[in-house]
Write a structure and sequence with these properties.
single chain, alpha/beta, Rossmann fold, five-stranded parallel beta sheet, 5 strands, globular
């Protein structure tokens, strides 16, 4: 199957990419993460995704949009819903890119993280896929958590310390 893989960061994409390729899928990466804060962190993650794609010979679509203002405008009134906004906005952008690129399905490296709301990602992905007219490919990549960490260290990829948004940065460092 021709799949578009949303990449939240290079390290988190390694294990899903490996599993998808082992299953015989033709994978292209899609980097779009407008919510990452601060800008220097965004650049580090974008560059790590590009580095990973080069090392893995992964075609990569780079949507290089940094939109802190749009993110904050969408979540500032109810920060507790920020993850839902992030999932929906990034999955929608990925589904749209999948349709435009003629992909059979799309998926997300978010399904690799044991820190994400896995069931919500699956449900949102399926809903958005149905709305956009492209299948959402679901697989639980969390069993490969340690292998992904090992692979990212071996490749010398930048490994972030928090999910990405300003709120998760605060939760990580303001304890």
């Amino acid at each position: 199957m021709k799949l578009l893989l949303h990449i939240c960061c290079g390290p988190c994409a390694l294990f899903p990419l490996k599993k998808l390729r082992e299953a015989g899928h033709e994978v292209t990466g899609f980097f779009y993460n407008h919510n990452i804060h601060p800008y220097q962190e965004y650049v580090k993650r974008r560059d790590a995704a590009v580095q990973m794609a080069e090392q893995e010979a992964l075609p990569l679509i780079l949507r290089d949009d940094y939109d802190l203002e749009g993110f904050l405008a969408s979540v500032a009134a109810t920060p507790s819903t920020r993850c839902s906004y992030c999932y929906a906005s990034r999955l929608t952008a990925t589904a749209e890119a999948a349709v435009a690129g003629g992909f059979e399905a799309y998926t997300a490296s978010l399904l690799y993280s044991r820190y994400q709301k896995h069931e919500e990602i699956r449900l949102r992905g399926e809903q958005i896929g149905a709305e956009q007219g492209v299948a959402f490919y679901y697989e639980d990549f969390r069993p490969g958590w340690q292998e992904g960490i090992r692979l990212s260290r071996e490749q010398g990829l930048y490994r972030q310390q928090y999910c990405g948004c300003i709120y998760s940065e605060k939760e990580r460092y303001a304890r």
